[in-house]
Write a structure and sequence with these properties.
The protein contains four helices and no strands. Helix 1 packs antiparallel against helix 2. It is rod-shaped, with a radius of gyration of 30 Å.
């Protein structure tokens, strides 16, 4: 069911994050009990700190994301259709010479 794929993807990501955080917390507590320092445990769990940043569709709102692309596309199609219809009507009525002459 494609309409739920976005929601299920977000849920899967959040559940995966929660499980990973819980698992890391348990592992860190076990290492601390074995005598490792908190800083050494932290470095071994996450040696390189990463920052995940969404480049596109930051708000996860696909209505806004697609609307930003669809509205200009629809306006472009409307303008091209109106231009083709206008030129076609001038050709049909054989008034293209008068039309072009009036333009200077």
């Amino acid at each position: 069911n494609a309409q739920m794929s976005t929601h299920s993807g977000l849920l899967q990501r959040d559940v995966r994050t929660a499980v990973g955080t819980l698992s890391a917390g348990i592992e860190m507590a076990a290492r601390n009990k074995r005598g490792e320092s908190a800083q050494a445990v932290h470095v071994s769990m996450e040696p390189i700190h990463t920052q995940m940043v969404a480049l596109f569709n930051v708000s996860s709102n696909y209505e806004q994301f697609l609307g930003a692309a669809l509205i200009p596309a629809l306006l472009h199609i409307l303008a091209m259709t109106a231009g083709a219809w206008t030129v076609g009507r001038e050709l049909r009525d054989r008034t293209l010479g008068e039309w072009l002459g009036a333009g200077g």
